[in-house]
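Q: Sequence in, structure out?
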Amino acid sequence: MSLQDFLKSKVDDHEHAVLKDKSTVITRAHFWKIHHDSKKEDINLKLGRYKKIKQGAIEKEIPEIEDPKSELTLDHEEFLSLIRFLSEKYEPFKLGLKKYISLNESFSEEGVEALRAIFQNEDRAKVLSLVMKNNLLPADLISGIAFVNKKRAIREFENMLSANPVEPVWQGWFKKNDWVLGSDFVKILGEREIDTENITDYLMQAYDGFLDIVEIKRPSSDLKFWAEAKDHNNYYPSTELIKAITQASNYIHEVELEANSDKFIQRVGARAIKPRCVLIYGRSNDWNDEHKKAYRIFNRSYHNLTVLTYDHVLNRARKILE
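A: Exactly. Output:
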C-alpha cells in the first residue's frame, strides 16, 4: 500500500507528520496501531521521502528513489527498538561520551539531586573520595557526570566570550572551573588577600603544596594584547598589558615578603616559596604566525610569570577533555 493510499484508508489511531518539506521533495513519518483479537496492540512506523510531481492540476507524491526504495516500514518490535536506541544513545552521542551509564526510571529524583550536590560541593574532592572509597556510585557514572559538567562549562565559557560580561562573572566561572588552569594547580585557596592593600583574584595551591597566584583581566576589546604599531618590525605588548604584568609582578613581590610569616601561612593555608603567577589576559583568536612567534619569545622572557589569553585557556580546556 502506498503512503497516499494508506492516508485515504480508514485505519483507526494513526498519526503522521511532515519532517521536511521542500519545493520538490517531502519527507513524511507515519505511525499507526494494529488491533488484534487478543486485545494486543502493535504500533508500526513508516518513513518515506517522496518526489512531488504534477499531473495536470493534481499533485502526487512518489518515492524519491525506487531502487532501493526511499520508503521504510518498521514493525512493532523494530519501532520500539528504534525508540530505545534514540532515547538512550542520542544525548550521550551528541555530547561526545564514549562510556556512560544510563539512569532509568528507578533512579529517583533524590538520587539525581545527590549526584548534582556532589559536583557542586565546594569541597568536592573530599566528597568524591568518600563516594569512591565506600563504592557509593560506579566510577564510570562519576566520570561521565564530570565529563558532561566540563563540556557544559566549555560551552558557557564560549558564550561568555561572545557576551563579554563584567570581571566578577569571570572570577566566578574560574572559581567553579579551576580545572581549566591545568595540572599545576590543586585548588583555589579560600583567601585572596596578600595584605590589606593587595588582593589577588586567586591564591592557588600548586601541585607541590606551595602558593602561586592567578590574576585575570576581563577580555575587553579595550584591553589589547599587542600595541597598535610594530617597533623595529617587532610586535610588543600594549600599555594595558604592561600595566597588568606590573600589577602581577607586584603581587609576586608582596607574597615573597610574607614567605616567612607564620600568620600569613596560617591564614592562607599554604607556604610561599618562589611564587609564580599566571596572568590571563586578552584574546588570541585572530593572531597570525608572527603574533604567535612574538608571544613565544615574549612569554619566555619571564621566569616567574606566564601570560595566557582566554583562547589559550579555552584550547587547554578542550585538550583536557580529549
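The radius of gyration is 30 Å.
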